[in-house]
């Protein structure tokens, strides 16, 4: 678990409580592997008689294997490598990512993913608005703007990683697609671990929560998975592109209750990101419930008191989990 | 600056209309403000102010100069702003020049008043050493390190803090000479005088989004504004300067309403700033 400095003014009692909670967390997280954490130029203990492979983050100097990055030593069969703690997003095929369209080009959209390179979403990888499975024609290409425009937020899956490192995305099922009526949050990618489910529908609050593996998190009003046929009729009737704006304005604004829940979950995510805790639905909902039970005002969640409370709660939660 | 999608814009505007912004703030709530003084030891006074994600530094340098012939009994102050490319990649090269000159002009208007010196927040007569011959020239520089909306308020606060931190050396006119000659002066190394900043105003910017005004807009909210009004108010409640930005026009009654809201907000902001500045000065004294 990576600790980072809190940039918030803490009073004396808060500092003491925070320090104590952090110490408890650190004692809980010590595993067999913690002895294997290295810093640059540490020597990695290796049995030189066995053949071993030097992986990322290592280099052989004067017959010794030294670490070139700070991290944890991992051993997989004969491979010895150093895994860094705070890394850039490392994509894998099948990851669910949330991104923003930066460019509409020929038969593809370029998507910004908080990664070294942009992701590419091909027109053919996107479900046709008709719902038909057919070859995309030039008319489809001209109508690309009816699907996604610049700055749209969308949710896609990584299809494959090309040789130059860029990502190919696809959005073949109805779950994926444009995200509206909510807010996009950016956290560090290493705080989101890969799990079975990244789409979460919190039915008690009517909110969609999508944890993208690249560190983008979408919190928004729940949208029923739409029937593509209905959308096509609407779009074909209008000829001016400003029609999309009109349809949105005609729709009512998000209700105050839903908005409060969205903002509260958003702030819970911000607090967890400030503290450097890994995020999944359980932790986020617990922070959300904690803020509700303590009747903390939504904006006060970003204050120092709530940060200390969340740290203490997290220490409790992990200790309880350990016992079970 | 990254654009936001139509759906997000709609969500943002809806939030402002319902008095619940994306980070949970009310329309008239400021983000936490943190002030650090004395960050540039070579300058006569300096301060760094952070409002949420916006981070600015202001520094004050004093040099001996000659008062202008139009106003021989006043010193001179000039304001210059630099938007650093670390804040936005578009600020590199000449990109940030337009914004810098706009901010400098607005700050000059708010702090220094009109050309004749009327309505100035800073008392220019206190900068005088010898009438018509010698005065202090103050060069106030602002640097934008990180931009997340509400630059003008942050720069105004930073300048107020920097002026509070400014120490100008005491000057003794050593010999009396004839009218057309420059008198000799003796600049003291040890004795300093603090600048009187009780009348320096604070700047409150009200951003109009839809039919409502918000205070302390983030960069996303500013991208959706129809117009913004920045009003500088001093401790007594007098308006020292007024700037309007943005493409759309406003009804005069709206402007009068915004002025009264800004006056109300300026009291809380002034008190908050004063306490932060004195805390920062105390912190600096402890360290040195």
Question: Could you explain how this protein is built, in words?
Answer:
The complex is a heterodimer of chains A (324) and B (288). Helices cover 30% and strands 26% of the residues of chain A. With 324 residues, chain A is an alpha+beta fold. Chain A has three domains: 1-32 and 181-324, no CATH class; 34-85, RNA polymerase II/Efflux pump adaptor protein, barrel-sandwich hybrid domain (OB fold (Dihydrolipoamide Acetyltransferase, E2P), Beta Barrel), CATH 2.40.50; 88-179, Nucleic acid-binding proteins (OB fold (Dihydrolipoamide Acetyltransferase, E2P), Beta Barrel), CATH 2.40.50.140. In chain A, the strands form four sheets. A five-stranded mixed beta barrel of chain A has the order 7-8-9-11-10. Chain A has a four-stranded mixed beta sheet with strand order 1-5-6-2, with no helix packed on it. In chain A, a hairpin with a 6-residue loop joins strand 8 (108-112) and strand 9. The two termini of chain A are 20 Å apart. With 288 residues, chain B is of the alpha+beta class. Chain B has a single domain (6-287), classed as Ribosomal Protein S5, domain 2 (2-Layer Sandwich). Chain B has helices at 6-17, 97-112, 151-165, 219-223, 252-287; strands at 33-37, 45-51, 54-65, 76-83, 128-130, 134-146, 167-173, 185-194, 202-209, 212-215, 227-233, 239-245. The longest helix of chain B has 36 residues, at 252-287. The radius of gyration of chain B is 20 Å and the shape is elongated. Chain A binds chain B through residues 9, 100, 112, 149-153, 178-184, 220, 244-245, 248-249, 253-254, 256, 259-260, 263-264, 266-267, 270, 297-299, 301-303, and chain B through 2-8, 10-11, 14-15, 17-18, 20-26, 29, 32, 34. Chain A: InterPro entries: Exosome_RNA_bind1/RRP40/RRP4, KH_dom_type_1, KH_dom_type_1_sf, NA-bd_OB-fold, S1_domain, S1_RRP4. Chain A: It is found in: Nucleus.
């Amino acid at each position: 678990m990576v600790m980072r400095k809190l940039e918030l003014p803490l009073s004396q009692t808060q500092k003491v409580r925070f320090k104590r909670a952090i110490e408890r967390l650190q004692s809980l997280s010590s595993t067999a592997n913690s002895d294997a954490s290295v810093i640059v130029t540490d020597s990695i203990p290796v049995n030189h008689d066995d053949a071993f492979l030097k992986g990322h983050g290592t280099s052989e100097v004067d017959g010794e294997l030294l670490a070139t990055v700070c991290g944890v030593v991992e051993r997989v069969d004969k491979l010895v490598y150093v895994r860094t703690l705070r890394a850039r997003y490392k994509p894998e095929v099948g990851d669910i990512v949330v991104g923003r369209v930066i460019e509409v080009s020929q038969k593809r959209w370029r998507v910004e993913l908080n990664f070294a390179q942009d992701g590419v979403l091909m027109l053919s990888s996107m479900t046709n608005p008709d719902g038909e499975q057919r070859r995309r024609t030039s008319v489809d290409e001209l109508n690309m703007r009816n699907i996604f425009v610049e700055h749209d937020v969308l949710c896609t899956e990584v299809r494959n990683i090309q040789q130059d490192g860029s990502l190919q995305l696809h959005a073949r099922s109805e779950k994926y697609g444009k995200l509206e009526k909510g807010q996009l949050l950016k956290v560090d990618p290493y705080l989101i671990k890969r799990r079975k489910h990244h789409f979460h529908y919190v039915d008690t609050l009517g909110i969609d929560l999508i944890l993208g593996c690249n560190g983008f998190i979408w919190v928004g009003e729940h949208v029923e998975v739409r029937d593509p046929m209905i959308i096509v009729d609407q779009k074909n009737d209008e000829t001016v592109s400003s029609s999309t704006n009109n349809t949105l304005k005609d729709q009512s604004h998000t209700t105050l209750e839903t908005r409060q829940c969205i903002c509260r979950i958003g702030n819970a995510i911000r607090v967890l990101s400030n503290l450097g805790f890994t995020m999944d639905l359980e932790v986020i909902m617990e922070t959300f419930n904690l803020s509700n039970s303590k009747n903390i005002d939504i904006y006060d969640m970003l204050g120092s008191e709530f940060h200390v409370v969340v740290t203490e709660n997290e220490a409790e939660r992990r200790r309880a989990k350990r016992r079970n | 600056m990254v654009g936001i999608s139509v759906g997000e814009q709609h969500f943002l505007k809806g939030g402002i209309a319902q008095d619940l912004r994306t980070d949970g703030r009310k329309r008239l709530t400021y983000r936490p403000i943190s002030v650090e003084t004395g960050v540039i030891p070579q300058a006569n006074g300096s301060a760094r102010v952070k409002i949420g994600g916006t981070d600015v530094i202001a520094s004050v340098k004093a040099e001996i100069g000659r008062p202008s012939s139009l106003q021989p009994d006043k010193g001179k102050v000039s304001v210059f702003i630099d938007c650093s490319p670390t804040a936005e990649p578009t600020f590199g090269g000449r990109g940030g020049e337009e914004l810098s000159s706009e901010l400098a002009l607005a700050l000059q208007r708010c702090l220094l008043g009109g050309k004749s010196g009327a309505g100035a927040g800073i008392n220019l007569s206190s900068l005088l050493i010898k009438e018509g011959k010698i005065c202090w020239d103050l060069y106030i520089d602002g640097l934008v390190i990180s931009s997340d909306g509400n630059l003008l308020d942050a720069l105004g606060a930073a300048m107020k803090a920097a002026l509070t931190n400014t120490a100008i050396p005491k000057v003794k006119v050593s010999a009396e000479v004839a009218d057309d000659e420059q008198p000799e002066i003796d600049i003291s190394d040890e004795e300093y005088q603090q600048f009187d900043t009780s009348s320096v105003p604070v700047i409150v910017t009200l951003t109009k989004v839809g039919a409502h005004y918000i205070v302390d807009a983030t960069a996303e909210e500013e991208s959706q504004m129809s117009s913004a009004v920045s009003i500088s108010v001093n401790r007594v409640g007098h308006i020292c300067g007024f700037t309007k930005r943005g493409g759309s026009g406003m009804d005069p009654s709206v402007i009068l309403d915004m002025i009264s809201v800004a006056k109300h907000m300026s009291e809380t902001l002034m008190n908050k700033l004063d306490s932060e500045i004195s805390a920062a000065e105390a912190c600096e004294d402890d360290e040195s």
